[in-house]
EAL domain-containing protein (Amphritea balenae), 278 residues
Amino acid sequence: AKDLGKYCYAFYQKDLSDKADYRFKVEQYLREAIENFQLTLVYQPQVDINSGVITGVEALSRWHHPQLGQVSPIDFIGTAERIGMIKPLTEWVLKTACNQAVSWKRSGLPVVRMAVNISPSHFLDSDLIPLIQKVLKESGMVASELELEVTESVVQTSQQNLSVFRGLKELGVLLAIDDFGTGYSSFASLKHLNVDYLKIDKYFIDDMLNDRKSELLVGSMIEMGHNLGHEIIAEGIETPEQLGMLEKMCCETAQGYLFSRPVSADAIAELLEKEKIT
Ligand code: C2E
Ligand code: CA
Ligand code: CA
Ligand code: CA
């Protein structure tokens, strides 16, 4: 038993150092990748439920490293925050996404909203508003065609947060609360905030058809959102049944694999050519 214990201990140690090693590599390579613009963006359609028309796309970052392979944004966004690289990353995402939207528009494709994720730490930074201003100006993007998605964790009613929200609204950009329903502060703070969209988290959508409570929660969130003047985007829609239920609940917009996975800019251009994808 003693030997086995030792063995397990050694094994555990090795496992830990492998993990530390992997983490160290991710940090090192990510810094290089951001500095050398080696990330890419894919775009996922947001579809108007009544008409089936694409009304927006969400830009999502991808990172493929020759040695590490494909790294999930769940991992590298957190890493970028930890190593102080989230600002240059976000700046690159904003520029690339806005340039892309302007380029689609100039080639005569239907105009769609461009949604960009802003991580909570960056959202609270005083640099954000000047950055957005700069990117809009340099890209020629119309402010009302850019949507910023922030998670509920920033929706606290501190004076600082409120002034960031106000400043962004003054610029004319659209604001969405991402992953709505999964945070702690949502309901109380919504009354102070002037956001355009609530994005209902996939977590609730997943269970909606086989769990009555999830169904009721989604219905209530949609109704409450509407009463407060927000439009609703449901995310993670994978089946026609989910879509049907959301339509009955008067949800405006849906996003999910049912319509399309996140795809390249060229693939989006093809979808926009067709205008309707349902
Ligand atoms: P999110 O903002 O909630 O984005 C939605 C995620 O759900 C995306 O994962 C998308 O690919 C996935 N998804 C969409 N529809 C479906 C569906 O029908 N089924 C399933 N199973 N999944 C679906 P992804 O691209 O892996 O991104 C994960 C998270 O990483 C994002 O969650 C977001 O929080 C973060 N992220 C990605 N790109 C960026 C970025 O450029 N900046 C920041 N700050 N965060 C980003
Ligand atoms: Ca998002
Ligand atoms: Ca989300
Ligand atoms: Ca999510």
Strands lie at 40-48, 54-65, 69-71, 113-117, 146-151, 174-180, 197-200, 231-235, 253-255.
